[in-house]
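ingest -> validate -> predict -> emit
validate: passed (alphabet ok, no gaps, 334 aa)
predict: started
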Amino acid sequence: PLVGLDVGTSAVKVVQTQEIDGRKMVIHAAKADIEDAGNEDSIREAILSALKASEVRGKRVCCSTAGPSTAVRRLMLPRMAKDELPGAVWWEGGQVIPYDMEEVYHDFETIAVNEKASSLEVLFVAAPKELIDRKQKIVENCGLEVRVFDTDSTALLNGFMAGPSKPEGTTFAVIDIGAKYTNLAIGADGRVPFVRDILIGGEDYTREIMNALDVTRPEAERVKRRLRFQPNPDAELATVSVTERLAEEIMLSFQYYEKREERGEGARPEIVKICGGTSQLVGLKGRLSVLLDTKVESWNPLSETMEGGLGPGLQEYEHAFAVAVGLAMREEPM
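emit:
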């Protein structure tokens, strides 16, 4: 199986799966912090450290990319011959991204065919070549072979749908709150998913605590991580504005999805699951529940998918493995 390699902005997560009794289960997983995300040597060291700690076998990996420069869009096209579709996607895709199509890698897949309207629904994905080439070079310099590039949000969705938490017959949202980005995916049976990267994450909470307490970044990070053990009213109050901004962006996405589906309130997510390192922040889950007017629950991807239970040292970080699990679920391309 492919190794899921999630190279984030603050840490590297590695996951490998194996089919057991007809279901893919995680057999190896590990995490390593990146000391300096702007330094390629530091990223390589974290990748090698995570690989060693995880004891994964195999060199073929599935990686991902995220952020505002990565586009995942639904295109509505008239029905056409299969050999005409790439040209149509090239043209229509170029209208919905802020880049020249020559500057991006792109791919697409037909999701649905509407016989009555004689139309196609196509999922279109594009990311700058410079962004992909840089990450691929770093990964391959670690002796690995990149077989697939996914996006964080679609990997998040795939990982969620592969586990027992996947709901049936209802609209759901799964939200991964990481260090720099929040990955959001909305799905429903028989519907084209909606995915989005929101530029709000753990770093925003850290900055607010720095400003409120007038402390250094390392000290603010320590305070944030220990709020559940050492309550600090000033620090907790400083995080409220960030959560409000995050909830506003999530709500805008919900409203967009409702409008896109033309089903009104029936398209609003009834189930909301959160994961990611920042999802463990004190009070975050309850505050989001109030602001979104929907019950928000935690999702722990490793607990649901790890064969034999969580290994030593993984309990504290299991909520941060959603993207890596989704990447490891991908099939080897033909």
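The radius of gyration is 20 Å.
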